[in-house]
Every structure is written in C-alpha cells, then in structure tokens.
From TrEMBL:
The keyword Nucleotide-binding does not apply. GO terms for biological process: aromatic amino acid family biosynthetic process. It comes from the Bacteria. One of its GO terms (molecular function) is aldehyde-lyase activity. It comes from Salinicoccus roseus. The keyword Flavoprotein does not apply. Gene3D superfamilies: Aldolase class I (3.20.20.70). Keywords: Transferase. Residues 99-335 form the DAHP synthetase I/KDSA domain. InterPro entries: Aldolase_TIM, Class-I_DAHP_synthase, DAHP1/KDSA, DAHP_syn_2. This is Bifunctional 3-deoxy-7-phosphoheptulonate synthase/chorismate mutase.
Length: 339
C-alpha cells in the first residue's frame, strides 16, 4: 500500500523485517568476539566492490555501531568469571606456606598465641608445635583491639621475634598486618600475611597484599556474606597474588553462648564456589575451649583444609584473648582428637 509520501509501506515493512532478521543472524555470529577482529582490513575487503545506494563511510559507521552495540551487550550479559571462582579454575589451588601445603590431600593447621608477647612465650609454643610435627605458627604483632586502651601488640618487635622463631625452630610464621604500609616490613619477616576480620573489606590493604607474592590468610568479616568474602579475595587475586586462603572465623548473630556463630556451611559453600583453600578458626568463632575440638572435627568433616586455633603457654597471663587460648596441656588433647 502506497502512502501520501509515495512510500510503499508494506514493501518497506517486509524489507526491514528481513533486515532485522539478518541483524539477529549477524549478532549470533559475532557475539562477544567481534571487538577482536581486525575491523579496518575487514571493512576495506567488504566495501571494495560496493557500488550501492549508500556512501561507504555511512555503511562503515553503521557496521561499527552494530559492533559496539553487540560487544556492549555481550559484556553486560556475561561478565567474565571471578578469578577466585571454580568457573575460572576448576582444580583446587594449593597454597604453600614454608613447608606446609594448604589445600592438598592432608589438612594443614595453624596454631599459636593470639599475640606475640615475648620471645620465650612464642618459643615455648613453637617447640610444642615442632614436636607435634606441625609446620606453621601464628602470633599477632599488630593487634586490632576493640578498645584503644588494650594491648595493641609489639608491632615491629613482634615481627622480629617471629623471624627469630622461624630461624630457631624451622616453622613458617604467620601474622596479621593492618595497614598497607606494613606490607614491605612484614614481607621481610613473615611467610604469610593474615588479614583480620575487621579488615576484610579494607580494600587498599587487600590491594597492597595483592601486589605481594606472599600467601594471604583472609579472615571472614564478622558481618560479611559469602559473596562479600569471595569479592574480598578477588581484590587480592585481581592484583596478581593467587596465594589466598579463606578463613571462616564465625559471624555475628543474636546467639550469645558462643563468641561468634561458627558458620560451618561457609566451608562447603566456599569450596564449591572457589578453588582456594579454606581454614576454620575455632578460637575466635566459638570463644569456648570445651567445644573447640568438636567444632574443629565438624569443620574438617565439612571439607576444611585445616584448622586455626590459639595456644598460649600460660593463658591466665595472656595480654589478649585470655579466656579462649588453650594451654599446652589443653592443646595436647585438642590436637590428639583432631588428627
Ligand atoms: C586473630 O586471629 O588474631 C584475630 C584477631 O582474629 P579475627 O580477625 O578473626 O578477629
Ligand atoms: Mn585472638
């Protein structure tokens, strides 16, 4: 049917419908890879023989517009999988800390005092760990305390003590850092950085450890979802450091009978979503020594790659987390029941 303007709308509709169908088949071919073809060469080949009704510059602009639209749409529809995800890497990552392997066939545990208080205090625990055949020790030099008036850790001196312990006892040493400017200093003293629950979303700190090649034990924020936990690890991987270990350490709930609520479901969920290893801290999650062994067994049964727990030669005099650190005697029993 020809309109007032002299156009045959029916015919036009038929042609434009066919054009839309052609565009769809074109999109099915190009998809997200179109950006990467050598377009200049392609257009000159395509338009070399063209003698149609339109200017070649217009045709080229039209096709470039289609390219942009289809690649933008592809980007919006399909973000690349996260580096932490199983979709990116299906095989389990094994993180090596000194001689220990976290994420391999055998569980790898990290025990040690809450805070580094003195050489002899850490050395006493180190000798015990060594006797038990363990390969790593932990101890806080920078302590993120709730009250500014509580013991804040020995700082650099604490790191120096840990380095001495490493040399004397042959154990790999792990300690928390709380600021990006600690990375250089700690790199020279430690075998792995710990990022504490309070800093799980300290993105500048995550990026700073991401630029290092030292392994990172990343603890779950006390109010962090699994998704946020995965994204926090992604910050580290995105900077180039793939040696990240998740550590579930309990989350805040209404329950008061434990210090935090140990989220056992986090273990299989993290293992399913990510190729990175998973540890479970039974000290800060439960805060109760009498249930730590049972919770550790549950964590291992759920697929955890190892346990973290605090041990102190004389918990009653500890400068932090006095009530929840195991004595060497308590630790003996605990250790026997989880191996
Ligand atoms: C710790 O492991 O010493 C610690 C402070 O734990 P969190 O960051 O899980 O509270
Ligand atoms: Mn502690």
């Amino acid at each position: 049917m020809t309109g007032n303007d002299g156009l045959d709308r029916e015919k036009l509709m038929e042609i434009d419908t066919a054009l839309l169908e052609l565009l769809d088949s074109r999109a099915a071919v190009t998809g997200p890879v179109e950006k990467r073809v050598d377009n200049a060469e392609y257009y000159s080949r395509l338009l070399a023989e063209y003698e149609g009704a339109y200017d070649t510059a217009f045709i080229q602009a039209l096709l470039e517009g289609l390219t942009d639209a289809s690649s933008k749409q592809a980007d919006a529809e399909e973000p690349p999988p996260l580096l932490v995800s199983r979709a990116h890497q299906s095989a389990d990552t094994i993180v090596r800390i000194g001689e220990a392997e976290i994420g391999g066939d055998e569980p790898a545990h990290i025990f040690g005092p809450c805070s580094v208080e003195s050489y002899s205090q850490v050395a006493e625990v180190a000798s015990d760990l060594k006797r038990k055949g363990l390969k790593m020790i932990r101890g806080g030099a920078f302590k993120p305390r709730t009250s500014p008036y509580d013991f804040q850790g020995l700082g650099k001196e604490g790191l120096e003590i840990l380095l001495e312990i490493k040399k004397a006892h042959g154990l790999a040493v792990v300690s928390e850092i709380v600021a990006p400017e600690h990375v250089n200093l700690a790199e020279a003293h430690l075998d792995a950085f710990q990022i504490g629950a309070r800093n799980m979303q300290n993105f500048e700190l995550l990026k700073a450890v991401g630029r290092s090649s030292k392994p990172v034990i990343l603890k779950r924020g006390m109010s962090a979802t699994i998704e946020e936990f995965l994204y926090a690890a992604e910050y580290i991987l995105a900077e180039g450091n793939g040696n990240v270990v998740f550590c579930e350490r309990g989350i805040r709930t209404y329950e008061k009978s434990t210090r935090n609520t140990l989220d056992i479901s986090a273990v299989p969920l993290l293992k399913q979503a990510s190729h990175l290893p998973v540890l479970v801290d039974v000290t800060h999650s439960t805060g109760r020594k009498e249930i730590m062994a049972d919770c550790a067994k549950a964590a291992l049964a759920a697929g955890a790659d190892g346990i973290m727990a605090e041990v102190h030669p004389d918990p009653a005099t500890a400068l932090s987390d006095r009530a929840q650190q195991m004595s060497l005697e308590e630790f003996d029993k605990f250790h026997l029941s989880i191996i």
